[in-house]
Sequence to fold (261 residues):
Amino acid sequence: MDEALISRAITESFTRDFIDSFNVDVAIVGAGPSGLVCAYYLAKHDLKVAIFERHLRVGGGMPGGGMMFNRIVFQREAIPILKEFGITYKKYKGELYVVDALESISTLCSKTLKKGVRIFNLIDVEDVVIRDKRICGVVLNWSSVKWAKLHVDPLSVKAKAVVDATGHDSEISRIIERKNGIKIGTSTGGVLGEGSMWAEVGEKKLIENTKEIYPGLVVCGMTANAVFGSPRMGAIFGGMFLSGRKAAEVVRKIVKQNSKS
Ligand code: 48H
Fold:
């Protein structure tokens, strides 16, 4: 067994996929539940998708369940998505179902990869590419560079659409607002920040808030509620899955439009 050959196998395989992802249909920032579900439905329709995730692991807020009890809750509306992925769910009471958070993450991740999505972990999206009033890519750096506060210039990836699935911090939406003075369709023109807990309203608003907020940029998951000032909802994840699926529909239309022009 040749150690140098092992090194070559890893770096050649990774680099081939990385270079092939410099031009994608869709770049998704964040491999939490909404980003993974969105990616899966896009790839199901044969779009070329890359997810960039800053952490070592995927799954975003899922492994922590509710206050480290690693179970998550879904409402009935999201059951068709759990069925599509083959994630086990158990009826609790009324409209509520319980899922093992770790099974949810591993299944989402596996099914998404098998559909052809490329997931790059340990890569941080630090900026967007913007041209003619349209978001047309993301700017990447190694997460370790950011955490070590090193001055290292980034690389860029081009995309017909970008999805902000960065969760509570809505990082990409805040970047476009801060750096480019862009006004988005909120009451102030800026990111409003999420409201306090109200599960029912938060879940409902999440679907409504999942949309294109600037040409080429779609918000989904917790980001959508944070951008539009809607409530948080705690460890119920049906809305995250439904938002990911809706974001995929919105993005497909954008990519189609973009491919014509
Ligand atoms: C690369 C980044 C960057 C960046 C962030 O937080 P997430 O799980 O997000 P959602 O919206 O898919 O799910 C939200 C859910 O987990 C949650 O927090 C709920 C239901 N909260 C309710 C409540 O009341 O608290 O995943 C976002 C992912 C994370 O893995 C981040 O590491 C990653 O995005 N990320 N990756 N570049 N700039 N910013």
The chain has a mean pLDDT of 97. The radius of gyration is 18 Å. Residues 29-35, 52-55, 60-62, 124-125, 165-168, 171, 197, 221-223, 232-234, 237, 240 surround 48H (CB under 6 Å). The CA atoms of residues 160 and 259 lie 8 Å apart.
